[in-house]
Amino acid sequence: MAKPPKRILQNCPLCNQPNEIFMQGLVRSLYSGTVQQCEDRGYSFCNCRNIFYTDWKNINIFNFKERFRNRLPKEIVETETSNAIDLVKSIFPDVESFYDVFKIDKKVRDTAKNKGMKVDKLKTYDLLYASYYFNRVENIPRELKKCHAKLNQNKYMYISMPNTKYIDFDRDNSIDFDWYVSENYTLWNLDDFTELLEENKFKVIESKNGLAKYKTENKEWVWRKDFQLIAQKV
Ligand SMILES: [Zn+2]
Questions:
Q1: Ligand 1 centroid from CA 92, angstroms
Q2: What residue numbers bound the domain in which 154 lies?
Q3: How confident is the model at residue 168 (pLDDT cuts 50, 70, 90)?
Q4: How far is the CA of 182 from the centre of ligand 1 (A)?
Q5: Is 1 within a domain?
Q6: How far is the CA of 18 from the centre of ligand 1 (A)?
Q7: Mean pLDDT lowest for which of 20-24, 77-81, 172-176, 210-214?
Q8: What is the band of 199 on the pLDDT scale with cuts at 50, 70, 90?
Q9: Total domain count, the chain
Q10: Average pLDDT over residues 220-226
Q11: What ranges make up the beta strands (E) of the chain?
């Protein structure tokens, strides 16, 4: 792990406490795909929620939307969406309508539709799908409120996110963790995110720390160091 070059403080988005940059971030060129370590931008840690966070000024929504819009391999998107729907339906078979919170890849909605879910414009839904979404928004409590309003009474939200439980500081994390300062605002572990959900009128009914694995078109396995959970609106 490289040493941060100078002392830079960033305020925690949850409690506003200033903390030093603890981990240099990465940037990936949109055009060449080259990954570089940032000299002066990175992640701080705050123990109010045990989150890693960067400055919102570092977030470049355009950059990550361009990078991810409809570009993830079909098999990954279909597998992840299908698995989530199957998991929720195995516990709650009465789930009929589906809403993709992130809306960055239309394959998500198509997959849900192919699985017989209603995906047309409704006021409220039975299942909200939030894959790698909450790590990218500025104000999580505000987003949770919006999601709460979009759900039918007692219905469900599926969430998956990068999981800081898997950070290994004995090795160079740039290899396998999401330290992209333009893309991830906060990074969480399952327990603290569960607590936050429960403070925001959701009850976590199923959760898993998981090394999710997906096959790509090149027949290679992609590993995601994430967590998955199902939260119920209460
Ligand atoms: Zn904090």
A1: 35
A2: 9-233
A3: confident
A4: 20
A5: no
A6: 8
A7: 172-176
A8: very high
A9: 1
A10: 75
A11: 9-11, 18-28, 35-46, 51-53, 98-100, 125-131, 151-162, 186-187, 202-215, 221-233
